[in-house]
Amino acid sequence: MAKAISKKKAAKKSNTIKLKFDTSWQYALAPESKSAATINKQYDLFINGEWQKPTSKKYFDTINPATEEKLSEVADANAADVDKAVKAARNAYDKVWKKMPAKERAKYIFRIARIMQEKARELAIVETLDGGKPIKESRDFDVPTAANHLFYYAGWADKLEYAFPNRQTEPLGVAGQITPWNFPLLMAAWKIAPALATGNTVVLKPAESTPLTTLKLAEIIQEADLPPGVVNIITGAGDTGAAIVNHADVNKIAFTGSTNVGKIIQRAIAGTNKKATLELGGKAANIIFEDAPIDQAVEGVVNAIFFNQGHVCCAGSRLYVQESVAKEVIRKLRDRMQSLIVGDPMDKNTDIGAINSREQLNIIQKYIAIGKKEGAEMYESSCALPSKGFWCRPTIFSNVAQSNRIAQEEIFGPVLSILTFRTDDEVIEKANNSPYGLSAGVWTDKGSKIFNMTKRMRAGVVWANTFNKFDPTSPFGGYKESGFGREGGLHGLSAYVNIV
Amino acid sequence: MAIAKSSQMMHDFSLSPRIDQVGVEERASRFTKRSIKNESKENGLKLVLNMIDLTTLEGKDTDGKVKQLCYKAMHPHDALADIPTVAAICVYPSMVKVAKKALGDSGIKVASVATAFPSGQAPRDIKIRDTKYAVNEGADEVDMVISRGKFHSGEYNFVFDEIAAIKEACGAARLKVILETGELGTYDKVRRASDIAMHAGADFIKTSTGKIQPAATMPVTLVMLEAIRDFYYKTGKMIGMKPAGGISKSKLALHYLVMVKEVLGEDWLNNEWFRFGASSLANDVLMQLVKLKTGQYQSANYFSVD
Predict the structure, then answer these.
(1) Per-residue pLDDT for B6 more than 50?
(2) Does the interface predicted TM-score (ipTM) exceed 0.90?
(3) Chain B: nearest CA to A450, how far in angstroms?
(4) What is the 8-class DSSP label of residue B51?
(5) Which domains, from first to last, does chain A contain?
(6) Which residue in A405, A55, A2, A390 sits closest to B13, CA to CA?
(7) In angstroms, what separates the C-alpha of A491 from chain B's closest C-alpha?
(8) What is the reported pLDDT for A14?
């Protein structure tokens, strides 16, 4: 009986008690097959419905971050290429797309979504090869969510009068869209779907380190027989993006990426009549109260910070734990981290894949060094890492203070800062004490506390007893330096229309 | 209330951790995404076979039926070399002696249900006699049921004391406490019942009698495994786990193994600390093992149905 175990003895024992996760029963390798996907040796620019050589005549490599091997080379679009793409988009807008009955537009979007589903396996493989994320995530999250987004907005195309009751809407024209490297295909779908549904045409540039699934999407668009010029996909780095932003005939900029670039874009479009939505960085507070379901909260923390190697703008990178349960939460989190499988992203059992690029790895390592220097207590899982490629063990820092840089600045990697708090007011103040405000999480068994917290939290998305949940019907976007405008849901439509 | 009567050292079971339904179901489903292939599948299947409590709990059980079941337990599939036996056979108290004799020195344990199984609706002295009878007949393990009615009435103290009394009656036999989770209604209550059972002296906690639907599910088992983990953290004492009922396919059993591996780790991955209560699972495991060896599925006719 419990009474028989003396408290002293139990306490002494519990310090040494350890669960052993390095079990004799191991999972065998379960790699997804590369041969189920085709990747061309070289990709040109997709302009006006056809593949065109870049006028720059230049191509750059895209590599697999898990092996550092070259996967393909893609065209580097210069300002002249951007101009061609914008002209094609303008032409398609004036002559075809804005005149087309809405229900016909919807058919095209549905068709793209369906082909995406048919090619789901191939898209998942390419996403994982190009970006380093686990195949489990690209297969179960990125690709299906991307298709869902297209299906959702296809449904809206001929129902805009219900989205904006008693108002007339008109499309903006040509949308210039720039997507990030963390969810390449999904972000492309997020941006293309509402633009097409509302009658705009598109020039889209994926991130230079992960262009392949967006180019695969161009192939799908071609297969869907979308009228030429309605969607143009061009590749390149920052200069290409700048050329899109600065092009005089672009009516709207949709950008997802870093806060720094977001600021540059805002400066560039100041004084023009370009509309913009910017979805930028974040440093989300994830708050665990003492009455929370602790085991599920720990799992939520893992989802919040280790999903996609922490390359998530809404990642729950600041964990606030009420002091009375901090020890328990950290202990359970450490145990949980031991059972995370880090390694080959193509293996179906991998939980944490490769860091997206060497540059990003350097940034993450810089912050880990800062955290150590600031005196926070670091713990990383003991897993072995592959010798080639870019890797970072899941890492947590405890004993972090609000004034630590690792608690203030976005790391964009699998690195968690853990802070403690005592009262509701204290944690609200600390959570809102950030230049960012994209997302937040609250863990408590008490419903009234959830509503009280969510009302006072300055964040675009607040999750209660869950984290990193996405749905096409739900708007997503930030406060403060996390940007403005909303993508997803009804709100996502208004970013692409003028209300007249 | 549990705390009113007991010393301050006692756990207040009304404060057992809360469980978030959505979260626990999501986590449980994630274990099913693990891909178990090749040698890992073969080793896993053998482990599963070795963790089975081969069960017959019917009104029509006879000596003959139990003897046949015991033979199956010792010789699951003689055509296949190098496979383990099951862990135990599980019968009613009246069949313990027959089983014990049939199993001889095979090392396979005899588990007996007791305490007015499956409803548990009997006075305590009858439950104690039921238990003592099974132990005296030679049962190595006793599978008791908790008084769910009392539990639902909030009489946690009654439930606690009853388990403690049965534990005492068990003597050297290991006690498995069946919570009958299908009658408890919420994960919160599964957790609370687990805590009561462990603190009251259970050696194992077990999901179900197999007579009520739903029987074992992965989320319920996860809640119980996490309760075991918390108890271990606090006391250093290991408690075993037995999901029972509804696990009839190898694939599902392997998912359970994944869950044990990732929640409790190495120490629980053996039949000393983890069991499957099942009757038809063994043949499915055998069928898969034969398939791994020969590359072909054989029909059910090639596997004995004792």
Answers:
(1) no
(2) yes
(3) 14
(4) T
(5) 34-280+482-499 (3.40.605.10), 285-473 (3.40.309.10)
(6) A2
(7) 27
(8) 53
